[in-house]
Design a protein that fits this description.
The structure is a single chain. The chain is mainly α and about 150 residues long. The protein folds into 2 domains: about 1-65; about 70-150. It has 4 helices and 2 strands; from the N terminus they run ααββαα. It has helices at about 5-30, 40-65, 75-100, 120-145; strands at about 70, 75. It has a two-stranded antiparallel ribbon with strand order 1-2. Strand 1 and strand 2 (about 75) form a beta hairpin. The longest helix has 28 residues, at about 40-65. The radius of gyration is 25 Å and the shape is flat.
Length: about 150
């Protein structure tokens, strides 16, 4: 199994577990004399099986990410860098928004509000971060489809 397939299965399992939790909640209580919409014991077994599979899959994904290197960095290091770039990009976009706002004055005697840093400079940095993030994400996606999942 490729790492990308394992990641897709992990996402599917997370969705399935959430759905099972909802269905179990709907089946735990019922009006006296009525049957629940589904057998909660069977749903709980499904939940436990899905959680066990998710646990095994997560261990294998994390192990694979730690030991697989691309361009001198482990996939784990690349994921951490991607997360950091996304955080920085969000912060820079917020700064661009604030620095680009114009504050109007109704009278000439009111205090004038000016940006301390030019929005265009912040935007250039944001664009650079966005490009680096996009390229890194492309490399990660490619690696995920080329890398075999390492079972533990």
């Amino acid at each position: 199994m490729k790492l990308a397939e394992a990641l897709q299965e992990r996402a599917d399992l997370n969705r399935k577990i959430e759905e099972l939790r909802r269905r179990i909640s709907q089946s735990l209580l019922t009006q006296e004399g009525e049957e629940p919409p589904e057998d909660p014991d069977q749903l709980i077994k499904e939940l436990d099986n899905a959680a066990d599979r998710l646990s095994r899959l997560t261990v294998a994904i994390n192990h694979t990410n730690c030991v697989t290197e691309v361009n001198g960095s482990s996939l784990t290091e690349m994921i951490a860098r991607k997360d950091m770039l996304a955080l920085r990009l969000s912060a820079y976009r917020d700064m661009v928004h604030v620095a680009g706002q114009s504050v109007s004055r109704s009278r000439g005697t009111e205090i004038k509000i000016l940006p301390v840093i030019k929005a265009s400079e912040l935007q250039r940095t944001a664009d650079s971060i966005a490009k680096e993030l996009r390229l890194l994400d492309n490399t990660l996606q490619e690696s995920n489809w080329k890398t075999e999942l390492i079972g533990k």
